[in-house]
Amino acid sequence: MILLKETIKRIGELDSKAMEKAKERVDNLIKPPGSLGRLEEIVIQLAGITGEIYPKVDKKAVIVMAADHGVFEEGVVVFPQEVTEIQTKNMARGVTGVCALAKYVGADVVPVDIGVKVDINEPGVINKKVKYGTDNMAKGPAMSREEAIRALEVGIEVAEEQIKKGKNILATGEMGICNTTPSAAIVSVIGGYDPFEVTGIGANFPVDKLKYKAGVVKRAIEVNSPNPKDGIDVLAKVGGLEIAGMAGVMLAGAANRIPVVVDGFISSAAALIACTIEPKTKNFLIPSHASKEKGAIYASELLGLKPMLYMDMRLGEGTGAVLALSLIESATYMNNEMITFAEAGISV
């Protein structure tokens, strides 16, 4: 709890003076003001985060939190739970979807076992297991409040280890069969939505059974009565260990003034937890893509974050966030490599 409290205390505001100077430069680059759209907004935000007029995001990492879920026993997913273990190992071997895309953008993949139901002895997988999967949230709390706090602190620890290694931008990813179910519960609770509005098919759950899945989410909320104003309570009662880990990464990024890129639906649920715990965290988050998962649009609206990419993706793992890393870095190249009208000898 001490680490979490200290991290939250360190989260400040964006550097408004750096943002003003960055905007002045961007507006005077040799182009019509605003003509490079979101790229201009990104540079200004990065300046606010880092305090630098010429921010860099060339040292990238995607932290992939892996965990299992007790609500799996309710039959809300078609894939076997063992996929979590298998894919977590494959993350370390560099052969999953996020690994392929990370190679393209030059990002390190950092897989973390924060709650897989079995022990994983695979070189490259960081063992930070809080417990062997959550409990069944349809019958009681997914975890204790103490376990939720510990999982948040795991995310903080892993993020700070990467920052100490020189990483200047982080992306969030996850691996956990069935994790769209707790994510839907989180969005439903914090946003006040009916579970049937925000519960989607996840990993190809049959559409004709979606009403049943949403019913499980509704039951979990009714059984646990999470407090929507208390992010840790929501996390403990209807969340997931990997969701907690990603929220911790976001809190650590904000505390260390490092931008954190949010992936899709599950990462957005983690962002809701982080921003409920400390609202200023939002300023340090950069959205990536609009997940095709049903509840993603609601999560983005709650966060007030507009996705950059519309690719009809819903894999998770951090794939959308990794793709966005290249766009974010391109914004810094715009800022660093273009000249201003004055430098070009043009009077405007």
Blueprint of the fold:
Elements: H1 2-9, H2 16-28, H3 37-50, E1 60-67, H4 82-93, H5 97-105, E2 107-115, E3 126-127, H6 145-164, E4 169-175, H7 180-191, H8 195-198, H9 210-224, H10 231-238, H11 241-255, E5 260-262, H12 265-277, E6 285-287, H13 296-303, H14 319-337
Parallel strand pairs: 1-2, 1-4, 2-3, 4-5, 5-6
What do these coordinates show?
- With 348 residues, this protein is of the alpha/beta class.
- It folds into 2 domains: 59 residues, Orthogonal Bundle (5,6-Dimethylbenzimidazole Phosphoribosyltransferase, Chain: A, domain 1), CATH 1.10.1610; 269 residues, 3-Layer(aba) Sandwich (Rossmann fold).
- A 6-stranded parallel β-sheet has the order 3-2-1-4-5-6, with helices on both faces.
- Helix 12 links the parallel strand 5 and strand 6.
- The mean pLDDT is 96.
**What structural category characterises the helix and strand content?**
alpha/beta
Helicity range: 40-55%
Distance between the termini: 55 Å
Characterize the largest beta sheet: strand count, sense, and whether it forms a barrel.
Answer: 6 strands, parallel
Strand order, main sheet: write it out: 3-2-1-4-5-6
Q: How many strand elements?
A: 6
- Computed over alpha carbons, the radius of gyration is 20 Å
Low-confidence stretches: none
CATH class bucket of the largest domain: Alpha Beta
At the fourth CATH level, what is the homologous superfamily of the largest domain? Nicotinate-nucleotide-dimethylbenzimidazole phosphoribosyltransferase (CobT), large domain
Q: What would you say the CATH architecture of the largest domain is?
A: 3-Layer(aba) Sandwich
Q: What is the domain total for the residues?
A: 2
In round numbers, the mean pLDDT is 96
Elements, N to C (H/E): HHHEHHEEHEHHHHHEHEHH
Oligomer: single chain
**Principal-axes shape call:** globular
Number of helices: 14
Strand content: 5-15%
CATH fold annotation of the largest domain: Rossmann fold
